[in-house]
Design goal:
Blueprint lengths: L2 H4 L5 H9 L4 H10 L1 E10 L5 E7 L5 E2 L2 E3 L6 H13 L3 E14 L2 E12 L11 E7 L1 H7 L3 H19 L25
Parallel strand pairs: 1-6
Antiparallel strand pairs: 1-2, 1-4, 2-3, 2-7, 5-6
Helix pairs in contact: 5-6
């Protein structure tokens, strides 16, 4: 597997190119057109003891990480935030990209991209009707509760990192102090 596929900063384009590089042009176009694009988050709730959100879907009673299909022309980060808010009822701050899970769903390729999100302490919204329960669990309990083996492996591998990163204040781009900012050159015109 190439190193770009192992990178946490993998783009959807890179993943699609990697998967389709040995396909014919016709098979490649069909694969990309049929791909289900989903987004979600590992939502960590603020507090002394970090908790990770897991949700139970009403359609099959499975426990999963908050996630859902990306809407047409929707930016992935906005879509991930929307899905997590709808499924948990908590406002979240999107922090950083964490990784991708790929699988087949109803015979079609599915790509789910996840971001780290820091949730508020209290809920702000009602959860959507597709969700019957939301639980905020310790990392170990969340891994145990998840029904999907791929999500269990993903959370096992990235969960500790996510919790540590969620505790840190988010870095802002450094602003240059006024005295260190470059000065504009003044013209040396003679006063008339």
């Amino acid at each position: 597997m190439s190193t770009s596929i192992m990178s946490r900063n993998l783009t959807l384009y890179d993943a699609t190119c990697f998967v389709t590089q040995n396909m014919t042009a016709e098979a490649s176009d069909s694969f990309v057109d049929r791909t289900i694009h989903a987004v979600g988050g590992i939502a960590v709730r603020k507090g002394a003891r970090p908790r990770v959100a897991v949700v139970q879907r009403s359609k099959d009673k499975l426990w999963v990480l908050p996630r859902g299909k990306l809407r047409r022309d929707e930016h992935p980060v906005r879509g991930a935030r929307r899905e997590v808010v709808e499924e948990t009822g908590f406002r979240v701050e999107v922090r950083e990209f964490l990784g991708v899970i790929t699988c087949k769903a109803r015979g079609r390729p599915k790509v789910v991209r996840f971001w780290l999100m820091r949730a508020e302490a209290e809920p702000s919204y009602q959860v959507m009707k597709d969700i019957v329960a939301v639980e905020w669990l310790s990392l170990a309990a969340a891994i145990e509760r998840l029904s999907d083996p791929l999500e269990k492996v993903f959370l096992t591998n990235i969960g500790r990192h996510a919790i540590l990163r969620a505790k840190r204040p988010q870095r802002r781009k450094a602003k240059v102090p006024a005295e260190a900012a470059p000065q504009r050159r003044r013209s040396h015109r003679a006063d008339a």
